[in-house]
């Protein structure tokens, strides 16, 4: 078995006196789609922020390709291959589509390679190519989500972390975004760790999944196993006896 691309082990996170994560462990293999499920305030975003280096764990380790990155800065993590699509697909609204994409390459220096990747994004996302000089804030919700994906890819990641990529989108757009995630995974060979409130939808495209409840991993398994598990629904709603 190949070693995991990303590995979290024994992660404890506190906000002041309040514990948000307790002994969280998970892994993502190269090219895998892994779904992180859980109800409101279960610690999904905190887990993502810990992976990106935006939150410092009090205990535990984060490893990328076996190397300990627990204390590595966010820009260095991005250079090492981790990218993120932030909550609510935040794009720079006043900046053009092209400027947003170039911002995704801010940790890189080779201008010729960056220009080639920009062309590649426009070939992969024709709708963005048509709107390249438009301010990103004028794009539709689905187009902004696409831009957030393409911007993440501009750092040439091996892992993209997505926090609720379908939030606030219409059902039709949700389907499109999920199709897009599958396509990115196949086309760019990039592993995906995605947070999603809608378990059914997330597990329909994921290989594996984890369920968080009040800061702890309470279930994990293949997408098929989790879909079959009656406890998924329960854990999902946060009815784990602690809340
Ligand atoms: N910056 C913060 N300061 C204090 N508490 C926070 C902060 N961010 C999150 N929390 C708390 O940590 C817990 C987990 O939050 P979060 O990771 O955002 O959950 P989720 O993304 O699953 O909704 C919640 O109880 C939340 O109120
Ligand atoms: Mg969240």
Automatic annotation (TrEMBL):
- Keyword terms, alphabetized: Amino-acid transport, ATP-binding, Nucleotide-binding, Transport
Against InterPro entries, the record matches this protein to: AAA+_ATPase (IPR003593), ABC_transporter-like_ATP-bd (IPR003439), ABC_transporter-like_CS (IPR017871), BCA_ABC_TP_C (IPR032823), BCAA_Transport_ATP-bd_LivF (IPR052156), P-loop_NTPase (IPR027417)
Spell out the Pfam families in the cross-references.
Answer: ABC_tran, BCA_ABC_TP_C
Record's keyword annotation contains Disulfide bond = no
Any one Gene Ontology molecular-function term assigned to this protein's record: ATP binding
Q: Its domain of life?
A: Bacteria
Answer whether the UniProt record assigns the keyword Isomerase to this protein: no
Q: Per its UniProt record, what CDD domains does this chain match?
A: ABC_TM1139_LivF_branched
The record places domain ABC transporter at 6-239
Q: Which family does it belong to?
A: Belongs to the ABC transporter superfamily.
Protein's UniProt name: ABC transporter ATP-binding protein
